[in-house]
Specification:
This is ABC transporter ATP-binding protein. By secondary structure, the chain is of the alpha/beta class. The protein has ten helices and ten strands. The chain has two domains: 159 residues, P-loop containing nucleotide triphosphate hydrolases (Rossmann fold, 3-Layer(aba) Sandwich); 67 residues, no CATH class. Strands 6-7-8-3-9-10 form a six-stranded mixed beta sheet, sandwiched between helices. Strands 2-1-4-5 form a four-stranded antiparallel beta sheet, covered by helices on one side. 41% of the residues are buried. The model has no long low-confidence stretch (mean pLDDT 89). The structure holds adenosine-5'-triphosphate.
Length: 255
């Protein structure tokens, strides 16, 4: 089995607060891996650390068998981790397809500056990139909105657009930060089908999610954080029975 992401001893402190202490994670190719825990447990901090948004205080990081140092977001994207955000971060005034095209430029020669200045190299690549972006919009189910401004899409569709943009970088690992947040039951079903399809198409997914039903239904393995510590790791069935996990959730007033 190929390991896609291997993290050992990830730690991050904010002043007096140990937001992550010594967290380990191994995600194998083709897995959907869940990261759960009560509010403030450190899930987003972990995402921010592995994607280069926060500099870790400690830890070793491997992606696709090679060490990587998560020091800059752009470098991590190039290395092969793409992510979405809890608070959607799209270019609101750009069209859906342009948002995906920006994602694709991580993988092309002319880069974002080429896109901005429309260099000759950029123009040559643009048609192919646009085709690929349209395919990705179709893939996530919002192809008909390609020319709509991102801000005019429904919340659920904006989340799917973020996933399309992440996929555009051809990532080794796609990290989804609460993709179901704010979605209604019907949208959640569609999202679940999409994540399942992404996995079947050979991608590896790391998922932060509050919707425990969604996590338990989708994930192969789960890590549970509480106050920055990893209190459980295992299959959804194992984790659900774990006493520490039950306590952590009840203590946080969640069920
Ligand atoms: N940039 C920061 N500066 C200071 N403290 C931070 C920062 N980012 C996160 N924290 C703190 O670290 C702890 C973990 O926060 P984090 O956002 O990672 O939790 P979470 O599990 O993602 O929570 P939620 O489910 O509410 O999103 C919290 O106590 C939070 O206040």
């Amino acid at each position: 089995m190929t390991t896609v992401l291997k993290v050992q001893g990830a730690s991050k402190r904010f002043g007096g607060l140990q937001a992550l202490s010594d967290v380990n994670m191994q995600i194998n190719a083709g897995q959907v891996y869940g990261l759960i825990g009560p509010n403030g447990a450190g899930k987003t901090t972990f995402f921010n650390v592995i994607t280069g948004l926060y500099t870790p205080d400690g830890g070793t990081f491997e992606l696709g068998g090679a060490p990587y140092s998560p020091t800059a977001v752009h470098e991590v994207a190039k290395q092969g981790i793409a992510r979405t955000f809890q608070n959607i971060r799209l270019f609101a005034e750009m069209t859906a397809i342009e948002n995906v095209m920006v994602g694709r430029h991580v993988r092309t020669g002319s880069g974002l500056l080429g896109a901005v200045f429309r260099t000759p190299g950029f123009k040559a690549e643009e048609a192919a990139i646009r085709d690929r972006a349209q395919q990705l919009l179709d893939y996530v189910g919002i192809g008909r909105y390609a020319e709509y401004k991102a801000r005019t899409l429904s919340y659920g569709d904006q989340r799917r657009l973020e996933i399309a943009r992440a996929l555009a970088t051809d990532p080794k690992l796609i990290a989804l930060d609460e993709p179901a947040a704010g979605m209604n039951a019907t949208e959640k079903v569609v999202l679940r089908e999409l994540i399942d399809r992404i996995r079947k198409d050979g991608r590896t997914i790391l998922l932060i999610e509050h919707d425990v039903k969604l996590v338990m239904g989708l994930c192969d393995r789960v890590t549970v954080l509480d106050y920055g510590k990893q209190i459980a790791e295992g299959t959804p069935a194992e984790v659900q029975k774990n006493e520490k996990v039950i306590e952590a959730y009840l203590g946080a007033g969640q069920h």
